[in-house]
Amino acid sequence: xxxxxxTQPFLPPLDEVxxxxxxxxxxxxxxxxxxxxxxxxQKLAEYLGVKHVALFSNGxxxxxxxxxxxxxxxxxxxxPYTFVATAHALLWNNLKPxxxxxxxxxxxxxxxxxxxxxxxxxxxxxxxxVYGNPCDVNGLQEVADKYSLKIIYDAAHAFGVKVNExxxxxxxxxxxxSFHATKLFNTFEGGAxxxxxxxxxxxxxxxxxxxxxxETTIIGTGINAKMNEFSAAMGLIQLKHFEDILEERxxxxxxxxxxxxxxxxxxxxxxxxxxxxxxxxxxIFVNEQQYGMSRDALYEKLKEQNIFGRRYFYPLxxxxxxxxxxxxxxxxxxxxxxxxxxxxxxxxxxxxxxxxVVEEIFSxxxxxx
Length: 369
Ligand SMILES: *Cc1c(COP(=O)(O)O)cnc(C)c1O
Known about the structure:
This protein is α/β, with parallel strands linked by helices.
């Protein structure tokens, strides 16, 4: 079989890109709130059902600025079961990460565990909608309200997801997206913050552009995190294809699930009735005893057959030298996170993969142990 990676970016037909390039060449306006940038902010706000979207050069800078814009100090409760950028964004803001555990099924931050981690210094919660499955948004909001905490969602995986018909980006104080090449909606590199007031949008816009407010006024220590016109054009084109992309991912996910449901020791994530899923990832969880083979052995076996899954999220952030000295990083504090990190493999899923390849991957998993 030809080499199959965990993901492959969606690239629109080149003839759809050409007119956008011609327009950029004509405008000679490459960045700094160009026309495509403005149009994409507007279209995304509409599509995501939020008041404002602020575009960024990548998701990590969007996370850094989200924390800055809310003026968070002290401690922030987050999850160890995520991509490193989530926790790094706290350290770059001189904030103390406090790890709480996740639920044992979907791997999202557990509100009870969050509540136990609260101290006098806690100012915010930074949960992640892992694999695009929504966090317990109501449970987390209750905890936040009770202790007057802000919530910044790392929604890097959650583009296009809805809960009870509401866009996932409507929850919390801010939601941060990534449009990196490996994410399901990509602008080569890129990111965004969804926010709910004009005032906050203004603040974020200043922070991502050095703090400039007009030609000569500079308010505060902004940074450069602006999205360029080429990326914004890519976003506009991607958006036209996005519902088709979702449909194709849904077919692939359903095929995986129906094939794998009878393989003992392999757990897939069920879809949730009130959720419109995006199937940004397709994680399986390997129970070594029941399956008769370890997760790592299956991972290697797949690689031998040219199937390159990824162990997202392994290692846990709490295991890394940068974080493992923290009290909250102790394994006994994070049993569900530890368990998921030891069991997970994300299988390939992307538009163009095709159900035939999914069937072949299933065959390997079925017969490997
Ligand atoms: C990809 C990702 C990020 C970082 O986004 P970039 O655009 O790559 O900087 C942050 N958090 C999570 C959970 C991610 O998956």
